[in-house]
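Appendix B. Raw example, untouched.
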Amino acid sequence: MRVLTKDEFKVCSQELFELINEGNAFVYPTDTIYGLGCNAEIFEAVEKIREIKDRPEAAFSVIAPSKNWIRMHCEINESAEAWLEKLPGPYTLILPAKDGIAENVAPGKKTLGVRMPQHWFLDVVAELGKPIVTTSANRSGDNFMTCLEDMDDVVKQGVTFMFYEGEKNGAPSTIVDLSEPFAKVIER
C-alpha cells in the first residue's frame, strides 16, 4: 500500500485517477474520519470494498463530485434542496436515487446516501468527476481508523493507496433521511 500526502497527490493525480478508474480501493481523509472508497460506478470495485469491510449487503453512501451531480442522480424536493445548501459539511443525506452508481452500492434500496465533506478531498472527487464510495476505513464492527497505526491489516492489504494527513479526532457524519416528505435527523 502506497501512503501519500496531499502534496504528493497533486504531483501524481493523473496516475491516481487512472488507478481509481481501474477499480482500485483506497483510504482517504474527510472532515470527520478516514474513509474507505472506490469508484462507485464500478460493480467489481464496490464488491472489493464489501470484501474488505466484511459487509456483504448493507448500503454504502457516496461522496458526490458536485451538488449538480446530486441533483442529476437523486430526486430533490424542497426540504432536500435546503439540506443541499448545507453542503459541504458533516452530513450524509439519504435521498431517493435515480441512477449513476453501480447497483451494489445500495443493493435493494431506492435511496442513496450522499456526502460532500468540508475537506480538500472533496476537490479530488470533483476533479475526478465521479462518485466515490464512502464508508469508514475499518472492518464492520471494529473501531474507526483514526491514524495509520490503527489501520486493520485486512484493510491495509486490500487497498492500493491512501491519502494520509495524520490522526483524525472526528466522528462519523450525521445522517439526514430525506426519502420521506419530512427530514429525519439520525445522530450516530
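End of appendix B.
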